[in-house]
Design brief:
With 215 residues, the protein is of the alpha/beta class. It is built from six helices and eleven strands.
Length: 215
């Protein structure tokens, strides 16, 4: 996916690095070039210096080809204006704006903008909305390289063993939830339809896990 992140603060930088690790094409916009240092030397995406709601800046970022835009500056108004431009002028399919005032959330949602409050959301939650809505991402470790995620067993995986959902060093099943009760499985555990399976997984392998789960 091609994803534009407006704002390279702590949330924006963390989200950008996680998405970049997963192999997405990430473009980060910020009015201060200095904050791009937060992205680190390993970041392979693109940076654009400028105001997020400036049309020229957005066009430079390739907004017309973007699959998603996330506005996470420290200004509610700037985030919402940027989101509205992305949604209404450039028809970006997925648009999310951070807000600091939860009381405005309902108003902004009536405008068709998905919002989140920094008091209750984190970068991994935003990433889940954009790229991996089919799996539940519970937590991450280190700088986001390893995550705990959960997916549901679909009919085509029923009666297969859990070993078929394991990749050494990348994907490791750690728990199965069946009929509301969790247990620690073995490699020979036979899956049942609608089982919930929790995994530790390298962030770069989440897309691979989705393919294994047929989602």
């Amino acid at each position: 996916m091609q994803i534009v992140i407006v704002g390279a603060g702590r949330v924006g930088a963390r989200l950008s690095k996680v998405l970049d690790l997963e192999g997405h094409k990430v473009i980060v916009i910020d009015k201060s070039a200095k904050v791009f240092e937060r992205l680190g030397k390993a970041f392979k995406g693109t940076t654009v210096e400028g105001i997020g709601y400036d049309l020229d800046v957005l066009q430079e970022s390739g907004i017309d080809r973007a699959d998603a835009l996330v506005a996470v500056t420290n200004s509610d108004n700037a985030n919402v204006v940027t989101a509205l431009i992305a949604k209404n002028r450039f028809q970006v399919p997925k648009v999310i704006a951070r807000i600091y005032d939860p009381l405005r959330e309902r108003l902004y949602q009536t405008l068709g903008i998905q919002t989140f409050s920094t008091t209750s959301w984190a970068a991994t939650k935003i990433n889940n909305i954009i790229t991996h809505a089919e799996v539940i991402r519970h937590m991450s470790f280190g700088n986001g390289e390893v995550e705990v995620v959960e997916g549901e067993v679909l009919p085509q995986l029923a009666n297969k063993t859990l070993s078929e959902l394991s990749i050494p060093g990348e994907v490791q099943p750690i728990s199965v939830i069946r009929n509301g009760r969790a247990f620690v499985p073995t490699s020979g555990t036979v899956l049942e339809e609608k089982d919930g399976v929790a995994f530790t997984v390298m962030t770069s392998a989440v897309a691979t896990l989705k393919k294994m789960l047929h989602i």
